Amino acid sequence: MIHDARTRWLSGAAAMAALVFAASCGSSEPSPGSGSGSGAGSGSGSGGAGGSMAESSSSSSTGGGPPINPSTGCKRGVAYGYHSKADMQALSPGVSWWYNWTHVPDEGVKPDAYKTLGVEYVPMVWGGGGLDSMRAAQIASEIPDETSFLLGFNEPNFGEQANLSATEAAALWPHVEAVADARGLALVSPAVNFCGGACQETDPFKYLDEFFAACEGCRVDYIGIHIYTACQGDGTNKARWLINHIETYKTRFDKPIWLTEFACDNAGSLAEQKDFMIDALEYLENEPRIARYAWFSGRANNVANANLLGEDGVLTELGQAYVEAPQKPCE
């Protein structure tokens, strides 16, 4: 499925190419055009090969960030890249952070509209195209001040996303580390997902195991994951299958988790998507291993009944539910 809503994406001076949704695994991000140079994530494993990774923690972050809106917690974010000031204003009562699959904020909220609302921006190194020491230095220089984290490669196991084998991602990871080190940022691993169709690897757990085996001694602070699953659940908890996936990640890897994209991918109605969201949020807010999470998306054509935003600056019914759902206080 083509991501028509995001083909206007800008990264640097280059427009991002059309977005592709993998038929059976819920990929939902843009593919940067040539010259965009965006991409990246983070993670560390305790099971399998991941256990050999050097220990690191989020305490490596020294960049600081904007003040958190006192009405929000610290976990809830949104994956979206077409924000206007009005959009950000509408989401800010319940969202403390956001990202947009690149390393510079959206034009619509530059230079600091998001900061004044207390919403933290998290940059990403999207993929490996052109990523060398010179490009890493450029990315580091362009990341805005008051950032604390850096997201790693975006779904590198997808042929239509960052499209890197685990060994290729590991070989490029030192450049991602260099960006983070230059700005004092904590690192989130490559964000993986179950993949169908053209894949480097269909199984995200196997991909991460292979990445960590090939990247022994690399610095990572958090595991990055995406989950798109059905919203029928087990009859009582509509997010049960999402929860089961996260529980598996918890047993396989020993770092805190960033769920940087999630939604129900078969919602036949707004009511189904909303029920899924409410059950998912209750779990995510109360699960200690979940450091942060981000709904997909503000506006998107490729996931039914999942938009948080309608007209400019106007929350949908789902967006209102996302903003108003209970949050735990920041710790």
UniProtKB/TrEMBL annotation:
The keyword Hydrolase applies. The keyword Plastid does not apply. GO terms for biological process: fungal-type cell wall polysaccharide metabolic process. Residues 77-322 form the Asl1-like glycosyl hydrolase catalytic domain. Keywords: Hydrolase, Signal. Residues 52-61 have a biased composition (Low complexity). GO terms for molecular function: hydrolase activity. Residues 34-51 have a biased composition (Gly residues). Coiled coil: none annotated. Gene3D superfamilies: Glycosidases. Residues 28-70 are annotated as: Disordered. Residues 1-22 form the signal peptide. Pfam families: Glyco_hydro_cc (PF11790). PANTHER family: ALKALI-SENSITIVE LINKAGE PROTEIN 1. This is Glycoside hydrolase family protein.
